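Handoff note, outgoing to incoming analyst
You'll be picking up this chain. Sequence as last confirmed:
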Amino acid sequence: MINVTKSFLPDKEEYIGYINQIWDSVHLTNNGPLLQRLERELRDYTGAEHLYVCGNGTVVLEIALKALEVTGDVITTPFSYCATSNSIIWNNCVPVFVDIDPDTFNIDPELIEAAITPQTTAILATHVYGNPCDVDKIAAIAERHGLKVIYDAAHAFGVKYRGKSLFLNGDISTCSLHATKVFHSVEGGLIITSHPELDHNLQLLRAFGHKGDDHYFYAGINGKNSEFHAAMGLCNLPHVPSIIEYRRQVFSWYDNELDWDYFKKPRLADELEYNYSYYPIVFESEQALLHAQKELLAMGIGCRRYFHPSLNTLSFVPKFFSCPVSEDIAGRVLALPLFVGLEKPDVLRISTTLNRVVRPAVS
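Most recent structure output, in case you need it:
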């Protein structure tokens, strides 16, 4: 079976070396020395002065909303993983879905201002597949209307835009360190801000709102991560350049083999150093997608409808917003296998199958 993704694992002995340190110190969690070291190395890697490792990629979104005291309506994208909209709902806010750009699949900045009301306090946008949103237009809109900006950068580890980490945009950026990501710590999340005045609050909010046992400042939550997760992150971080390079090679194989008369993929931003986090293709119809998915699965090849469905159509969202572009693309997009170790013959087999399925039969 070829899965749609396969977690990168470092040398086992290297990881065991860190585990031995944990055994010797008996410091398992609660901001231990390995976690602090990982945070230092990640700050160096990203250029982000204010960065913290937390338990997962969803809790950091929830902490971001609390840290910025977001209330009321939050403008967001319908084309993302459900963690984006769920975090808004969990914070007793209302997700206001704004449709996406048909070329980049990111939130369409030209539609944002029409969705702003007196109840709007923030924009929470996703860098879809690690492809940057139009951060300049979003920043200008937020400044005009006094809104906070949070970027769900779950897919964007290692991405640079205009020579800087994509994490350095907005008031707060978050990232997932889940095992399926380009860089992972098995489970984990990052929260990053360029505003030093938010730094203290982020530390408190991820640790029950207190420092020491006698000083409580916030109704915080347990957003911490363990030494075992930090150890995996420390092992994996040096491999990120080679991981990205391998994924770039797989990208090029797909690019060269797929018949682009029958598929579409997102347009990437200019001035971008990409991480090749996912390989999504859009079919001409949902029927063609379902046929291709069935054929691939019969061959033992996994693929994923990522993202599907469009979040504005979920039954539990508080208010419905029509987003026809997102709904259309969500019905036709399929993420293909992409991971370190995926071999060229497998990519050729996947591509040949997809081309055969979508090309018209010749009589």
